[in-house]
Write a sequence for this structure.
């Protein structure tokens, strides 16, 4: 999650150089692989990268192939088969015994739309789904990289086929309802189309009840994981932004006023550590 946040932040700061950037996404795996579908990696024409789609073994080859994608402006899917004997020959020698499919796309307008969509899911702490076409076998007027974006209040269709849109949207709604990414195949006009439906998870929200010095490393570690962190305490001197620089929110509140000032959602995690027994006991009852 932190990795994707770093990618979004980097894209926001690269306003003038977006034409020289590609985004690699792990879209399909089988067997043993280091990362799961949805892992992303940002690459530019100068060889700079953010994120990873493996344990470090595929990145250099993905970087090399991304240069071609950036120059041609055409997305492509690369298959890495570490189960084959040829793996030793072309230099990886991974030993993972898995197959990974990586989609590399130039950072064009429709891709920026997806990044904005993910960013909004993070900011509003809501779920979303991105259905991405990763393979087209046949003559259908559909291209790799076309996508459908779905959230509670948003439907964005970048597909050029209404029949495919209807079917994919149905499965994207199911994926969103079940909170489960999936790989789907569709048959349309004599063509087989493969689609990766990825569920975008909202940021996990940590609420820490207490503002002692032992809360500081917990806040820092949680931010390294990309979590949204709120510190709650009724002592103004301890619960200050100066002490908790990395916290997203500082809430001054007594235990009896907590539920009036803090929104508790299903993706919240709470840590009770005020070190005042009566306050901690009251917080446990409220939670």
């Amino acid at each position: 999650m932190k990795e994707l946040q770093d990618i979004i932040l980097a894209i926001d700061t690269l306003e003038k150089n977006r034409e020289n950037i590609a985004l690699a996404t792990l879209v399909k795996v089988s067997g043993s692989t280091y990362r799961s579908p949805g892992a992303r990696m940002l690459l530019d024409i100068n060889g700079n990268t953010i994120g990873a789609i493996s344990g470090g073994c595929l990145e250099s080859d993905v970087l090399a192939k991304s240069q071609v994608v950036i120059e041609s402006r055409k997305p492509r899917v690369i298959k890495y088969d570490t189960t084959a004997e040829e793996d030793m020959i072309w230099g990886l020698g991974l030993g993972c015994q898995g197959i990974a499919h990586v989609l590399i796309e130039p950072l064009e307008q429709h891709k920026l739309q997806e990044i904005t969509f993910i960013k909004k899911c993070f900011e509003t702490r809501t779920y979303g789904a991105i259905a991405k076409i990763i393979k087209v076998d046949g003559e259908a007027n559909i291209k790799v990289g076309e996508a459908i974006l779905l959230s509670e209040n948003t439907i964005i269709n970048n597909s050029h086929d209404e029949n495919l849109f209807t079917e994919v949207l149905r499965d994207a709604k199911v994926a969103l309802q079940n909170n489960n990414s999936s790989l789907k195949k569709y048959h349309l006009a004599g063509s087989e189309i493969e689609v990766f439906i990825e569920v975008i998870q909202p940021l996990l929200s940590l609420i820490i009840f207490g503002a002692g010095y032992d809360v500081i490393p917990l806040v820092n570690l949680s931010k390294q994981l990309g979590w949204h962190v709120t510190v709650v305490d009724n002592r103004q001197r301890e619960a200050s932004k100066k002490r908790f620089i990395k916290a997203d929110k500082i809430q001054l509140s007594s235990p009896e006023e907590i539920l009036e000032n803090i929104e508790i959602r299903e993706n919240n995690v709470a840590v009770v550590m005020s070190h005042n027994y009566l306050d901690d006991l009251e917080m446990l009852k409220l939670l």
In short: The mean pLDDT is 88.
